[in-house]
Amino acid sequence: EERFPVTSHFVLTILVGDSGVGKTSLLVQFDQGKFIPGSFSATVGIGFTNKVVTVDNVKVKLQIWDTAGQERFRSVTHAYYRDAQALLLLYDITNKSSFDNIRAWLTEIHEYAQQDVVIMLLGNKADMASERVIRRDEGEKLAREHSVPFMETSAKTGVNVELAFTAVAK
Ligand code: GDP
Ligand code: MG
Asked: TM segments (predicted)?
């Protein structure tokens, strides 16, 4: 008789958003529990990371793909979108254009991703309070307009990082 979670789900997840918003850093924080300061290469991603989370006694294996390079041209390959079951869409709370570009990202996502893809909007770099240009309620409003959940995260301090990925798995 099984006493431990046996049901396994596999969720293909991709990180999208403008270059520099902290996609790679967020994944490193989630995977390794640490923050490596300084920019990661804009063109060489770390590929993907597998991570198992347990939600409601069910094991969920997240395979998380980090997009790199392509985001500068806002043309993440369509195959990338087509297979994704979940998308973490990031902007940087200290960078207005990364926030303004969210609408364009969503347009592209709706064009190419599966209809039932799970989308979560994340305002990253929440630790940089003194340089904030996008208020939390602006993020909440945008998320509401597009009927997607929203959180502010920090890849640096780790705040809400685990929660964001677990919410996606759930
Ligand atoms: P990507 O291009 O979206 O993958 O962004 P990176 O992960 O390479 O991060 C871009 C820059 O922002 C780097 O200098 C990171 O150290 C920094 N960064 C990323 N996330 C955070 C964060 O949550 N807080 C702070 N203070 N810096 C961050
Ligand atoms: Mg990156």
From this structure: none
For the record, the structure tokens of 74 come out as 């806002």
| Biggest CA pair distance of the chain | 55
Distance CA 100, CA 77 (A): 21
Give the pair of three-digit tokens for residue 165. 């990925």
- The complex's ipTM works out to 0.99
CA 44 to CA 35: how far, in whole Å?
Answer: 18
The preferred substitution site among 15, 25, 128 for testing ligand 1, maximizing ligand atoms within 8 Å of CB, is 25
Asked whether 39 lines ligand 1 (CB < 6 A), one says yes
Residue of 94, 96, 39, 93 lying closest to 68 (CA atoms): 39
**Verdict on whether the full-model pTM lies above 0.90:** yes
SS3 assignment, position 46: coil
> Cα–Cα distance between 58 and 18 in angstroms, integer?
33
Indicate whether residue 156 lines ligand 1 (CB < 6 A): yes
